[in-house]
Design brief:
The protein has 16 helices and 2 strands. By secondary structure, the chain is mainly α. It has 2 domains: 160 residues, Cytochrome Bc1 Complex, Chain D, domain 2, CATH 1.10.760.10; 139 residues, Cytochrome c-like domain (Cytochrome Bc1 Complex, Chain D, domain 2, Orthogonal Bundle), CATH 1.10.760.10. Helix 2 runs antiparallel to helix 7, helix 2 packs across helix 8 and helix 10 packs across helix 14.
């Protein structure tokens, strides 16, 4: 009876010419800036978020039905992956870059390491169509899902009818990803006045502000701009970052600046996953920077940190780990969608 009444309610709204699901309120701290995402064109609803969550974990988004978004973006790794340096796709193919962590996406205006995508609603097309990742077309995915028993009713609840389109798939995926807000680390508790840094963490915070904050801007810990951080070119990958997209000299070796949140969960680091430990990252910045015309201004004179200072800096960086976010059951595989007969709860 409850299901029938719910469907009747939906039908009445559709007949009236409009359908509005239950509003989903995006929660974030008051010290965060305003989101960059335009919610007026894809307002959050609980139904669309739930649909996007199911799609995110469904391998049917790949050509051979083996790779899902979560294959490279595990919730337990801050929606990154730690078992290999470069992304893996269908037929055991290896991609060309490390899968970036997915959180606080509502504050970002461009996506991918090279900024090739300028809107979250379009971002999923890149891995979906990449021949070494999911190697599928959005039109084919829509056809596959339309033929499923469980998806048309889900689209009905989310969009008001059972028609499955590429646009709706992409918007639903965006909806789920927009809810991936990481703002529960010890750093956030200190900002809220409910915790305090240790003396070592406080010293590391001072070192961070003096050496890192120009690129990794608080409180998101990234400006989400593009910069060259002095990495030596991997002669196998020959990845020139943003320059490969724009073909402009000023963009050569520029890569998107990642957030420093959840570093304990999102290794390996850099666009090609070359460093597995934070010590190795700091060694690069203190000893391994390769001069380049486009090198970030803050790095042109190098960074000097003693071993003890590096230890203190790492102690601060660990306060950016958000265990609450990483183990949030609302972000994980939706068992009740894929196994409804078992009566499992999300």
């Amino acid at each position: 009876m409850k299901i029938k009444l719910s469907l009747l309610w939906i039908c009445l709204f559709v007949i009236a010419g409009f359908y509005v699901g239950d509003q989903y309120d995006l929660l974030y701290p008051n010290y965060f800036p305003a989101p960059a995402y335009d919610f007026t064109k894809n307002s959050l609803t609980k139904e669309k978020v739930a649909l996007g969550r199911a799609l995110f974990y469904d391998p049917k988004l790949s050509k051979d039905n083996t790779i899902s978004c979560a294959s490279c973006h595990s919730p337990y790794n801050g929606f990154a992956h730690t078992d290999h340096d470069l992304s893996h796709g269908i037929n055991d193919q290896i991609g060309t870059r490390n899968a970036p962590a997915l959180f606080n996406l509502a504050w970002q205006k461009s996506f991918m390491w090279d900024g090739a995508i300028n809107h979250l609603d379009m971002q999923a097309l890149a891995p979906i169509s990449h021949p070494k990742e999911m190697n599928e077309s959005i039109a084919s995915i829509a056809q596959k899902l339309q033929a499923e028993v469980k998806y048309p009713p889900f689209f009905l609840r989310a969009f008001g009818d059972r028609v499955i389109t590429g646009e709706r798939i992409l918007k639903a995926l965006s909806q789920f990803q927009l809810t991936l807000v990481s703002a529960g680390a010890k750093y956030d508790q200190v900002k809220k006045g409910t915790a305090s840094f240790s003396s070592q963490e406080a010293n590391g915070y001072r070192l961070f502000q003096a050496n890192c904050n120009s690129c990794h801007v608080e409180p998101l810990f990234s400006s989400y701009a593009f910069a060259s951080n002095g990495l030596a070119i991997d002669t196998t990958l020959n990845d020139f970052g943003k320059g490969a997209i724009t073909k402009k000299a000023r963009d050569q070796l520029l890569f998107k600046i990642p957030s420093l949140r959840n570093l304990s969960y999102t290794y390996p680091y850099m666009h090609d996953g070359r460093f597995r430990k934070l010590r190795s990252v700091l060694k690069h910045y203190t000893e391994g920077i390769v001069p380049h015309t486009n090198l970030a201004p803050r790095l042109q004179k190098g960074i000097t940190l003693s071993v003890r200072e590096q230890t203190d800096l790492i102690a601060f960086l660990l306060t950016l780990n958000d265990k609450e976010f990483v183990f949030n059951a609302d972000h994980q595989f939706p068992k009740s969608f894929f196994f409804p007969k078992e009566g499992l709860e999300d």
